[in-house]
What we know:
Elements: E1 4-5, E2 11-15, H1 18-21, H2 34-39, H3 57-71, E3 75-79, H4 82-85, H5 95-110, E4 114-120, H6 126-129, H7 138-154, E5 160-165, H8 167-175, H9 187-210, E6 216-228, H10 233-256, H11 263-266, H12 280-284, E7 290-303, E8 312-315, H13 329-343, E9 348-352, H14 370-388, E10 393-396, E11 418-421, E12 426-429, H15 431-442, E13 444-445
Parallel strand pairs: 2-3, 2-10, 3-4, 4-5, 5-6, 6-7, 7-9, 9-10
Antiparallel strand pairs: 1-13, 7-8, 11-12
Bound molecules: 5-hydroxymethyl-3,4-dihydroxypiperidine.
Amino acid sequence: MPRITFPQGFLWGAATAAYQIEGAVAEDGRGPSIWDTFSHRPGAVLRGDTGDIACDHYHRWESDLDLLVDLGVDSYRFSVSWSRVFPTGSGPINEAGLDFYDRLVDGLLARGIKPMVTLYHWDLPQALQELGGWANRETTDRFVEYARVVHARLGDRVTHWLTLNEPYCTAFVGNLEGRHAPGIKDEATAITVLHHLLLAHGKAVRALRDDGVAGQVGITCNLTSPNPATDSEADVAAWRRLDLYENRLFLDPLFRGQYPDDARAYYKGISDFSFVQNGDLEIIAEPIDYFGINYYERHLVEADPADSVRGWRRVKDAKPTTVGIGVHPEGLLEILHRVSADYTTLPLIITETGISLHDYANPEGEIHDEERVAFYEGHMRAAHEAIQGGVNLVGFYPWSLMDNFEWAWGYAYRFGMYYIDYATQTRMPKDSARWFAEVTRANGIA
Ligand code: IFM
């Protein structure tokens, strides 16, 4: 393989999210989120795992920040837990919750690492869910209040803001499939939730601008690269519908200020989109500074005549990894070109990509995760190829810094560059951590 070097100033990062690593769910005034409720529901999460303790990052954050130094990253992406700041989603501010993130941001800066803050990574305060959650339009205003408070405290030091992480998952995995919190299975609710998430994003961007935000503001979507399984008319039609569902429902409103033409037909008989009010789409398309892309999946799609609502099904990957998806760096290349050709020339950042493996530590304490190294290398090479091809890609953040609570899969699946021995909370570098440290130091791959 040829040596590749990334442009000077390319941002190398690592990513995590609050509920997946922090633990300390009842400490310093934190209120419950929908993930506390959901993970404690029998059968909701594999083996009954919860985020109660997770990686105990709330107490170990300082030594965890030292791991970032060992990796040599320029930036760290983490999320703020809304219910640490507003234990009941609104009302009085819990200063102790903000203090934690204040210390974290200072700790990053002291180590020369730029903070990238995700405001919403799926952990809605439970009190807001009881008022209807994201299906309630008022939640968008609660989100703005929360975003402004976090910005008021951290805005002088945060270089990158992300309003939302993966609205697809909140809307569809949480409110249609019911595999994530809040565990609802209702297609009309899910599409309403999606609209309100996007609206909350746009309103928050406006509010942060009004408040004089100094850092860059963006949003992260998980995009896929779907292709029809065959070129039959039926498979091509199925592919278009899946592409709507996985990509265009997000990209079109954010960058074109409209839902795609085929959206209303897809939801015919389910939703009439009456949740869209005058001016909403203009707010959703409020200009941002950069766009975050999380990439995990390329899908082959075929027609499913038995499914009268969707009409599509994903074809099982020939070589699935532990979570049932394949490894396809070419899908990342496709997405980067597509976003930059069809939607925006803004800077793009890969805010997540990674692979879950059943890692284990051998008796010498080594974790040989060569498949993860190969995954990273393949996706970095695809990223580099995109840059060579003119895509304005400025950063790459592997998911994840460390093994963590992988939502419905609990602790069974490991995505980290650092192995967590949950019994002792020991952090151990996997081979991928050592390899990634070489990449960040060389700004490329030898
Ligand atoms: O762990 C998740 C993360 O919270 C959001 N993106 C996908 C990751 C791996 O499944």
